[in-house]
Each structure stands twice: as structure tokens, then as C-alpha cells.
Design goal:
Strand order of the largest sheet: 3-2-1-4-5-6-7
Largest sheet: 7 strands, parallel
Strand content: 5-15%
Radius of gyration: 18 Å
CATH architecture: 3-Layer(aba) Sandwich
Number of domains: 1
Bound molecules: nicotinamide-adenine-dinucleotide
Number of strands: 7
CATH topology: Rossmann fold
Order of helices and strands: EHEHEHEHEHEHHE
Distance between the termini: 43 Å
């Protein structure tokens, strides 16, 4: 406890899943948290849960892929907390699994806008403040889908591969500034985004198969991604920079492999 004591943090996508778990953990670790999401009621519930647990949080409805909204959430954190040390640019959308020949430019643009341009805008507007300050940690949510195929649709996977590249290039854009930039690559985590997958498997009685492709042989939970985000946000990760770290039960360590039946 207390690993983020005194830090001022923003978490986007904080109304659900990984973002809510991270906002709650950041606050438990001592950070003041601006919880941002496009869904007002649910992000207010996140802030209420933090306050009920004795933490400090402010909720804000904003579109993480819109430049004016990103400027507004950075300004709000500075006004509320008097500074900004951490941004977790986590908001994302899956876009579903549309066959490639049916995908439209509009579909691609919306997924790239939220999933990739959103983190870029966080780097641009929060990063400018952090560079002046001479310190800061920006964490983005990429995905194992950005590492190789079959964990999401084409535009989703391309957006997540883009984040992996973005944290590498942005870490260098912040050369010598003291600002660190990293990404987490979650595997299969039970959240709002993956609810249809879990509902389908449970409906068919095949829940035990969820996560069977990784060597831990189970799916993950939002708090397991939040733990990595909190580490990357904290000073414990003071020499971790430009990295995309998989938190996936070992999924990305393996080639496809059919296990012998017992
Ligand atoms: N769940 C998984 O298995 C998994 C795996 C890899 C990566 N991810 C990534 O984790 C991140 C969090 O997703 P999750 O799984 O917790 O899903 P989720 O749907 O539970 O949460 C995503 C949150 O982001 C918000 N959001 C979406 N678009 C937004 C926008 N334009 N502006 C502001 N908020 C917006 C949603 O309202 C929602 O509250 C996403 O970037 C997702 O791509 C998830």
C-alpha cells in the first residue's frame, strides 16, 4: 500500500473492467484519481466506490479520442489536484469481429480514433505538462492482439500494434525529460468488452475452455492488469521505459499447441 502516495493520476475508461479496477487500485495505493469515461453514471460510480473506501477521486465524462476532451481532462486534473504525475490511457473499443471484406473506412477510423489516437492525445497533452515538470509516467493499454493474430479484429489488432510502436517512439520523443511511457498487453480478461465471449461460453457450458490457450490455463481478471499498470505508474518502475509488457498468463510465450488428452 502507498506505492502511489502523493501522485496525481488520470485513468481513462474508468467506468468498467480494467480501467475501474485500476482507478480503485491507484487510489488504494495513495493516488488522487481523475476517473474519465464516456459513460457518466458508471464513472461516477467508480469515483463513489473510491470515496467510500477512503480515497480521493473525481469523475469526468469525456471522449478519450477527442482532442478538446483530452485537453479538458488534463486541465481538470491540474485544477483539481494541482499537478499531474500519471496518466493511464486505457479506454478502448473492440469493434467486434467484422469480416475483412465487409469492413469500412468509417469502422477503421473509429477504432483507430479511440484506441490509438486517444493514447497519442494523452501523450501530447499530459506529456507536455510532465516534460515541463521533469517527471511523469504514462501507461497505455495495448493487447496481445497487437503482438499477433487471432485475439481481435483487423482494425482492433492494428490499433493495439500501433500502441506498442507508439510507446517505443514516444519514450524517445521524451528523451532526457524524466517522463516514462509504457504499455500493458493484456490477454483474455473478463470485462465489459469480453462479456459476449464469456456469456456465450457459459451458455454452452464451455467456460472451462476460456483461457485454455495459455499455460496458466485460465482467463485473467481486471485487478491482474491493474497491478501491472500500478507498478508502471509507480516509482518502483523508475527504469522501465518504452516497453509493452504482456500480462496474459503466458499466452504470448507459446506457439499454438494441442495438448495431449490425459
Ligand atoms: N478485456 C480484455 O480481454 C482485453 C484484452 C486486451 C486489451 N484490452 C483493452 O483494455 C482496455 C480496457 O477495456 P476493458 O476490457 O476493461 O473493457 P470495458 O468495455 O469493460 O471498459 C472499457 C471502458 O472504456 C470506455 N470507453 C470506450 N470508448 C471510450 C471513449 N471514446 N472515451 C472514453 N471512454 C471510452 C467504456 O465506456 C468502458 O467503460 C481497452 O483498451 C481494451 O482494448 C482488453
Amino acid at each position: 500500500m502507498g506505492r502511489l502516495k502523493g501522485k496525481r493520476a488520470i485513468v481513462t475508461g474508468a467506468a468498467s473492467g480494467i480501467g475501474r479496477a485500476s482507478a480503485l487500485l491507484f487510489a488504494r495505493e495513495g493516488a488522487a484519481v481523475l476517473a474519465v469515461d464516456k459513460t457518466r453514471d458508471a464513472v461516477e460510480e467508480t469515483a463513489a466506490q473510491i470515496a467510500a473506501a477512503g480515497g480521493r477521486a473525481v469523475a469526468m465524462a469525456a471522449d478519450a479520442g477527442d482532442e478538446a476532451d483530452v485537453q479538458a481532462y488534463v486541465a481538470r486534473a491540474l485544477a483539481e489536484f494541482g499537478g499531474l504525475d500519471v496518466v493511464y490511457a486505457n479506454a478502448g473499443i473492440s469493434g467486434g469481429l467484422v469480416p475483412l471484406f465487409e469492413q469500412t473506412v468509417k469502422h477503421w477510423q473509429e477504432i483507430l480514433r479511440v484506441n490509438l489516437i486517444g493514447p497519442f492525445l494523452a501523450l501530447k497533452h499530459a506529456g507536455a505538462h510532465m516534460v515541463k515538470q521533469g517527471s511523469g509516467s504514462i501507461v497505455c493499454t495495448a493487447s496481445v492482439a497487437g503482438l499477433r493474430a487471432n485475439a481481435g479484429g483487423n482494425p482492433y489488432s492494428a490499433s493495439k500494434a500501433g500502441i506498442i510502436s507508439l510507446v517505443q517512439t514516444a519514450a524517445n520523443s521524451f528523451f532526457g525529460s524524466g517522463v516514462r511511457v509504457n504499455a500493458v498487453c493484456p490477454g483474455l480478461i473478463e470485462t465489459g468488452m469480453t462479456k459476449p465471449i464469456f456469456d456465450y461460453a457459459r451458455g454452452r457450458g464451455t467456460e472451462a475452455n476460456l483461457g485454455q490457450l495459455n499455460p496458466l490455463n485460465r482467463y485473467g481478471e481486471p485487478h491482474e492488469i491493474a497491478a501491472m499498470a500500478a507498478f508502471l505508474a509507480s516509482d518502483e518502475a523508475s527504469y522501465v521505459n518504452g516497453q509493452a509488457i504482456a500480462v496474459d498468463g503466458g499466452l504470448s510465450s507459446t506457439h499454438p499447441f494441442r495438448r495431449p488428452r490425459p
